[in-house]
Amino acid sequence: IGEWIPPGARFPLEMARDVDAGSNSLLTYQLKGDSSFSLSVQEKPGGNKQPELVLERVLDREKQSSFELVLTAFDGGEPARSGTVQIHINVTDANDNPPVFSKSVYEARVAENLSVDSVLLRVRATDADAGSNGRVSYSFGNVPDAVRALFAIDCESGEVRTAGALDFEEKTKYIFGLEARDSGGLTSHCEVQIDIIDVNDNAPEITVLSLSSPVPEDAPVGTVVALLKVRDRDSGENGQVSCELLGEAPLSIVASPGGSYKVLVLAKALDREEAAFHELVLRASDGGDPARTGTARIRVTVLDANDNAPVFSQAEYTVRVPEDVPVGSVLVTVTATDADVGLNGQIKYS
């Protein structure tokens, strides 16, 4: 009997036979077993009585899938004799139960460097129906294409796997819906939340926003030479950056209040005659384990200042000449040098 059969439905039963005659063969019936069913006897033409099983209330296979009844037939003799038959009723399933997820929200925290085709979590839905009515398949709900590009759902097992590379710097959390459907078309839904955990997969980046070059050699200590932006796309300790200058240079790093900008300033006086330019290497290191680094090279040219006087090759020149030397004769050549360059190093004599 199908569980969708409405109360009041009748099911004819086999009639009993009695080979006696007269009142000894007059039959009555009695039903025992469960109040979900009752017995009705219909008088047939010719005097035979047809027993019928009457459904009294709605069946629910998920609550009770079978019934055991006993039908007894009594004759009219004295003493009465009886015969019995067992009635076994199987309740046929109807697809009257939708799948039910074990949770309304499934959560997982995964590292962004998780390999493709890794299992993130497994959803599970059960269906109280039997057979194909209780067979559940899983699929995505109405989700964006970006979610389908990164995640996949096994329609039979309910395993949610990675289908693409995750990137914490692109997105830190994904929320999407899954659907469970039985073969009869009944559905239910759940929500999946995937939190992406940052790993130290980005090296610091140094960008030169401005550079004052050349720098006059007479520029005072503290003069700003360059403005730099230091950025690490990771978060937390993985994104905390410290900077240092490699090698010897008359410059120092000053951090801005926010920490993302660095200022290069003169730490001591320049001397173009000692070094006409300075090649700087700035290294940034993050706080990851292991740490990642980034570098930038900066060339600062020193602009000459007229800070050097001409210097004669000799402090005193002594020349002996005869008194009859002709007018216009060269007596001596003096030389002077100037450590400056350009106009600052051009020498005139008087």
From TrEMBL:
InterPro entries: Cadherin-like_dom, Cadherin-like_sf, Cadherin_CS, Protocadherin/Cadherin-CA. One of its GO terms (molecular function) is calcium ion binding. SMART domains: CA. The keyword Plastid does not apply. One of its GO terms (cellular component) is plasma membrane. One of its GO terms (biological process) is homophilic cell adhesion via plasma membrane adhesion molecules. This is PCDGD protein. It comes from Sterrhoptilus dennistouni.
